[in-house]
Amino acid sequence: MQIMASQNRLAKFEQPKKGEIGLGLSSQGQTVEAALLDAKGKEIAWGSQIFKELDKGAYYVLLSMPIGSTQNGVNATVRLFGQDNPPADPPAERIKRIIKDDRSESSTAQASR
Question: In terms of residue numbers, what domain contains 59?
Answer without folding.
Answer: 2-87
